[in-house]
Design a protein that fits this description.
The complex is a heterodimer of chains A (112) and B (112). Chain A is mainly beta and 112 residues long. Chain A has no helices and eleven strands. Chain A has strands at residues 5-7, 10-13, 19-24, 31-37, 43-50, 53-57, 65-68, 75-79, 88-95, 101-103, 107-111. In chain A, the strands form two sheets. In chain A, strands 2, 4, 5, 6, 9, 10 and 11 form a seven-stranded mixed beta sheet that branches. In chain A, strands 1-3-8-7 form a four-stranded antiparallel beta sheet, with no helix packed on it. Chain A starts with a strand and ends with a strand. Chain B is 0% helix and 59% strand. By secondary structure, chain B is mostly beta strands. Chain B contains no helices and eleven strands. The termini of chain B are far apart. In chain B, the strands form two sheets. In chain B, strands 2, 4, 5, 9, 10 and 11 form a six-stranded mixed beta sheet that branches. A five-stranded antiparallel beta sheet of chain B has the order 1-3-8-7-6, with no helix packed on it. Chain B is globular. Classes of the chains: A mainly beta (112), B mainly beta (112). Chains A and B meet through strand 4, strand 5, strand 9 and strand 10 of A and strand 5 and strand 10 of B.
Amino acid sequence: EPEVTQTPSHQVTQMGQEVILRCVPISNHLYFYWYRQILGQKVEFLVSFYNNEISEKSEIFDDQFSVERPDGSNFTLKIRSTKLEDSAMYFCASKGGYHEQYFGPGTRLTVT
Amino acid sequence: KNQVEQSPQSLIILEGKNCTLQCNYTVSPFSNLRWYKQDTGRGPVSLTIMTFSENTKSNGRYTATLDADTKQSSLHITASQLSDSASYICVVSESSGYALNFGKGTSLLVTP
């Protein structure tokens, strides 16, 4: 069964460093999403992406964040200058049909 | 502000017993409501999706109900198994956008 994959599974970085989280969505999907989940808290929407542009973003998704679909298969989330409060699980999701979003296993980002 | 509230926060039941999880929401305009199962350290996996016109939907031992008038949903788990131990998250989407509104989840522990 097709699935969303994410790399790395765990990323440790120092405060102020740039990180890129990578996702490979399900191949025929057209809608892509990033979410984050701070430990012990609920999942929060960050951004949705369709037709090579951002379709919606939350207030969390500020100028430090950017997304890109560089090669037609990968979907990346970049954080330019990480802060301690960026430590969280980051989930990628993709959607092909009307309702269903499929989530990846997540990348645990630890900012020290 | 769109909100999704779940109860109870946590629940412990014996293997083989049934349980019901609750979700109340204020999301408007409403598009659909989903229940996800999230194992520790993993991404959410969809169990059911319901639009406003559906008031019940089953997926194996999981049965979800929706009352769009009172903005309430429930997830009933029948004959629980140890593998049902997870967080169950209620997610409501708006018809006006792409974002999903997540509840904080109910943490279910099934014991032998």
